[in-house]
Amino acid sequence: MGVEIERKFLVRGDAWKTLATGVLLRQGYLSSHPERVVRVRIEGGAARLTIKGKSSGASRGEWEYPIPLADAQVFLDTLCERPIIEKYRYRIPCGGLTWEVDEFLGENAGLIVAEIELASEDQAFERPDWVDEEVTHDARYFNSSLLRHPYARWPTGGAGAYLDE
Amino acid sequence: MGVEIERKFLVRGDAWKTLATGVLLRQGYLSSHPERVVRVRIEGGAARLTIKGKSSGASRGEWEYPIPLADAQVFLDTLCERPIIEKYRYRIPCGGLTWEVDEFLGENAGLIVAEIELASEDQAFERPDWVDEEVTHDARYFNSSLLRHPYARWPTGGAGAYLDE
Question: Which residues are A47's β-sheet partners?
Fold first, then answer.
């Protein structure tokens, strides 16, 4: 078990795209309940199951277990909540840390977010030009929310008049 | 992954109790959704995570992964749906197969069921005297149902006038 401290930002322009190569990532949820998320993810031929507890500020209990690729494929294709999420993930080293930029596909196409994992909630970090507004606490951008309310269906296609149900 | 074929029965009398020693089993659900059950179980110092797909007759896709005991304790104590299930499990060899008899505690106290795992849905098996009525397809006896509708709260304390909501 670890405690995950992540901050999430929108992205401007496409300068970041020249800094890394995207890897296709498929993920889905056996549970998207915010107090007990169970996520299945395939990335670069490896699969894992991740369990996440309730968020508290930017911190969240997180536990990961590797699972056989074939199992993950069955889970994503037949068991997980619909739709599953597909995105390209770019890992961009910066100031001793790594930005993870996610370029979403399918019903979330058009959405690009950058995340950085920190050791503490107030840790300082370098913020490149292409990193825009912070959305860490904006529930619309939680992966579990993007299942129910994909980006393509947001009223303004962005941070506008959208209200959760 | 395996396909689980189990038949479930009520139990009469207590002759079965002299045939084995019960082991305390604690289990809870990260998801009790019938199409994607995620179960956490601790039994005899070992913990595992089990994923089950949708039932089809008495068959059901089932995948199991061992996990650290400490993780399972956190899941059961803080993450799983309430209440968790606690029961004594007795394993009773019989005619080359094994009956698993579950004696429930807590809100399901009074309920005792016997299960047998088979290689095919029509496999013959020996049926001891203490094995009573079959309840394989009776959803009230699914472990996931016993969370929401514990046995102690059934109208007749048994197979009577109870109707699911």
Answer: A42, A67
In terms of Cβ atoms closer than 10 Å to its own Cβ (0-12, 13-18, 19+), residue B128 is middle
Cα–Cα distance for residue pair A117/A96, rounded to 1 Å: 11
Among the partner-chain residues A30, A71, A74, the one whose CB lies closest to the CB of B38 is A30
Residue A98, both tokens: 């790594």
DSSP B76: I
- Which chain B residue shows the shortest CA-CA distance from A2? B71
Q: What is the DSSP pairing of strand B59-67 with strand B2-11?
A: antiparallel
Task: Nearest chain A residue to B69 by CA: give it.
Answer: A1
Rounded to two decimals, what is the model's pTM?
Answer: 0.74
Contact B71 A1 (CB under 8 A): yes
A162 to chain B, closest Cα gap in Å: 29
> Which of B35, B75, B79 is facing A79, going by the closest CB pair?
B35
The ipTM, to two decimals, is 0.72
Q: Name all domains of chain B by residue range, CATH numbers in brackets.
A: 3-154 (2.40.320.10)
Question: What residues of A act catalytically?
Answer: 29
Residue to substitute from B31, B55, B75, interface A, most A β-carbons within 10 A = B31
On chain A, the residues whose CB falls within 8 A of the CB of B75 are 51
**pLDDT tens track, chain B, 165 positions:** 567 789 999 999 999 999 999 999 999 999 999 899 999 999 989 999 999 998 766 567 899 999 999 999 999 999 999 889 999 999 999 999 999 999 999 889 999 999 999 998 889 999 999 999 999 999 999 877 888 889 989 986 444 434 443
Among B33, B13, B50, CA closest to B145: B33
> How many angstroms away from the CA of B33 is the closest CA of chain A?
8
- As beta bridge partners, residue A33 has none
Cα A80 to Cα A163, B33, B37, B133, B142: the distances in Å are: 26, 11, 10, 35, 21
